[in-house]
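G., the chain you wanted modeled:
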Amino acid sequence: MRLKEIFIAFLVLTGCSAPNQKSNQDFRVIDVPLKGDDHQIMMSSFVNSISYIPLETKDECLIGCIDEIIVTDDFYYIVDETKACSVLCFDISGKFICKLGSRGPASGEYMQITDVNVYKDKVYLWDCSLQKLFIFDHDGHFLEEKKFDYMAESFAVLDDSWIVFYGDYKANKKYERSNLYPNLLFVNVDNGETKPDLFFDSRMCYSSIISSPFNFVSNANFVTPLSDTIYQALPSAVLKKRYVLQFGEQYQKAQRDYIEKLKTETVDVYQGIEFMKKIPYVYTFWDTPSYAFLKYNWEDYYYLGIINHKESDAYIEASGYKKMNIVNDMDDIAVFVPLATYKNTVYSYRSPERITSDEISGRHIEPDDNPIIVKMELK
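Predicted structure as tokens:
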């Protein structure tokens, strides 16, 4: 079930506490407070500076909606799945460079954009409906396409050979083992070798699991519904545990009970939404050298967990009841809604009508211009 609009709304969340953590072999266990009240955190406590980059506006690069931002040293890649139906490349000043790919039935064309990755000087576009991976150079020239036999909703390019796909609880029957389906599949694009991982019971009613469009978003770190573990996919085709979240036995039991229910009953989408409200649901994880940011929700509370790498992964939690929980005490413009991280910076965007020209260093901005990239340098 693709509910990206729900999660774009969930990204506008955010309060504070310091629970215990325990080292456990190669991963850390975090005791999550899951406070049922409002705890706000000031943005200035972890953000050093904020700047704004207007994206050039002209007919050939009009953006309807930003579904994804990918940042490199030289470029911003903007994924627009609806209006442009393409990937738009801008330089770091916001100047339009090129459009990558087009929708259609011809060779080298895709029907839909499911997910996009950038690795080195290549852009990878995955179309789940065709089960094809389209590869472009950074100038927008089509290079090649590859067909795969795995239904996936997101992916990460790990190195020149290995790619990992996330199946989102789909019935990828070719890779079934003892009535289990793999939620992950590592694929070597050079020799075709595959390594399935994260198996789940094939009886589960996957259409009743609220999916996140933000599984692989930061350094191949990975989260999945109905799991309290944050993984990282490594170029050696190994899935490494990084953090295990402990929400309390009552919530773990609720999660186990719902998984059992999915195996034995038909649960529709709306019932699934109501059931999953009662389970702490982790839906994205962003990592930087200074901090990692963890988004989760429970009932009608929205949470942001902040892992401070500079202080031995100390953990604080912001929470809010149907409202923002990170307060911008710096300029009253930016909203802490991460869509990308690169090096020690978090990136988001704002609509032009929310920013005046004076606030953008004198550059004239029209209300119907392209969105404006928000760049938040971390401390």
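The CA atoms of residues 12 and 337 lie 6 Å apart.

Shout if anything looks off.
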